[in-house]
Amino acid sequence: SDVVVIHPGSRNLYIGRASDAFPKEIPQVIVRRTSSPSTSPPFPTHIRISPAALEPIEADVKARLRALKIRTQPSSHAQVKSYNAQAVPETILDHNDSFKVDWVEFGNDALRIPILSTPPPFSPATIPRPPPPPTAPAPPLRAFYPIQHGLLNTEDYTSIRACLADLQTIWTESIEEELSIPRANFSSCSVVLVIPDLFSKTTVREMIGMLVGVAGERGVAGGGMGFRGLLLIQESVSASFGAGMSTTCVVDIGAQKTSIACVEDGLCVPDTRINLKYGGDDVTAFLRSLLVKNDFPYRELDVEGRVSDWLLTQELKEKFCTVNEVDMIVNVYDFQVRAPDRPTLMYRFKMYDEIAIAPMVCWGGNVASRRQIVVGRIRPLTPTRMPPPMHFLRRRRALPTLPDLLSPLDLAVSRSIELYAHAYTDIKERDLEDRVRRLCASILLVGGGARARGIGRLLADRVGRRLAESPLRAVVLESPREMDPRFLCWKGASIYAKLDMAGEMWIGRQEWEFGGVVRVLGKMIFGWD
């Protein structure tokens, strides 16, 4: 109960005691008033609907329906548009709204920003009081996300220290309010930090100093949090611990990134790490564009201007999105719109293939224009034709790099498996084939973006096609131990903290103060170079 497990994400923070069954899910964002414009929008705005982008995805969906001999009606899209164009909202009174939202009034005390505090009253007995100047309008509210795409947000912050200061504020208040641990007791607690597979050494070094440093320490943004010790673990390794698997290929679909890495015997193979710059937010933005294209009845939908509308689209994605072919029928759905000082409105609308096309962002179509791929510790090679899957066990062949814009998820997974085979040059071919066979049979799908129904079956089918000429068979595991895939990494980190082997991996405060990174390199179960 004295160990705090922290798994920071691009949208949410998963935090809790190691003895808890499930973590607390907290939005990792700070809202303050500022007049400086944002250089990067908080939600993706790059999704575009064009025939060139939709045609490959629609053709793929129709081919899957024909393969299963599922008949479709030619007039399905016309039915959806006609019904949605005539939809009228229904007003729900407050006493009939079971899920009524209590809105928070923003003020100086709620925002807790020093520059917004009211100055002390002027004393008229000492100096004559001049007439008050006209009141200037308050600066607009702006949301700051310290972590974007799995890395520190260097676009909206002037420095890394400013970003870490906001991150420290969020973590400190979350521990105090959600876990009921006062700041004075941090020195008697330890912390487990889950870091990305592809990490920045500067970011990890600053986070270690922030967590174990004491208040007012030199080089720590705003003073450290003063924990007794720290344990570091990578996301792929913690997911394997949470699933109870020693050898697996972890596919983590988050809000803004998708990371892939192979784990063997509880260690991440460095050369297999791949980071795709798309995730669940791209699916949400694509779904919003598809709904607007088909005359969505809520005409005021504005995901860029109102956070509530973005959360509404996120809710529609989580409730209705699927890649199961049998669910692609014209059906009537409903949703509620809740806004401050307005009654709740319930809309009924129809959807057809939007729920199946939106998750296909991960499988090509070049819908997400910012898509790019980062491969860890791999020297870029000249792109060539991909060798047949039968030959990837022959380790001495040069591997081509992944294309930057048109790399679907199944291609990245198969490439990570190929990199795993090429990472071992000192074992026999037969032993290597057995290892790769076990790896392909244990592809682990985790993350909040992995909750769409049928996504695991589709990924296994696509990866199996990539390996069609080899004797390998792809098996994708979803929700192992019936656990929410969002919490699997956090749960694995809490399990790892209880193991006897973890007792030698704790980074103490004095060790960090006297030796820094050089002193604690032996206590990291991953490579630092």
Core attributes:
529 residues, alpha+beta, Nucleotidyltransferase, domain 5, Actin, Chain A, domain 4, 31% helix, Actin, ATPase_NBD
Written account of the structure:
It holds the Pfam family Actin. InterPro entries: Actin, ATPase_NBD. Belongs to the actin family. The protein is an alpha+beta fold and about 525 residues long. The chain has three domains: about 5-40 and about 140-235 and about 490-525, Nucleotidyltransferase, domain 5; about 50-100 and about 280-360, Actin, Chain A, domain 4; about 235-280 and about 370-485, Nucleotidyltransferase, domain 5 (2-Layer Sandwich). It contains 14 helices and 20 strands. Strands 11, 12, 13, 14, 17, 18 and 19 form a seven-stranded mixed beta sheet that branches. Helix 4 (about 160-180) packs across helix 5, helix 6 (about 235-245) crosses helix 13 (about 490-500) and helix 7 crosses helix 8 (about 305-320).
Number of helices: 14
Q: Which outline best applies?
A: globular
Q: Could you state the CATH homologous superfamily of the largest domain?
A: ATPase, nucleotide binding domain
Summed over residues and divided by their number, the pLDDT gives a mean of 80
Cα separation of the termini: 34 Å
Could you describe the largest sheet, including whether it forms a barrel?
7 strands, mixed
Helix fraction bin:
25-40%
Strand-residue fraction?
15-25%
- In the CATH hierarchy, what is the architecture of the largest domain at level 2? 2-Layer Sandwich
Tally the structural domains: 3
Which ranges are low-confidence, i.e. pLDDT below 50, for 5 or more consecutive residues? 107-128, 216-221, 369-406
Question: Structural class of the helices, strands and pairings?
Answer: alpha+beta
Compute the CA-based radius of gyration.
25 Å
**What is the total tally of β strands?**
20
In CATH, the topology of the largest domain is named: Nucleotidyltransferase, domain 5
Q: Specify the CATH class of the largest domain.
A: Alpha Beta
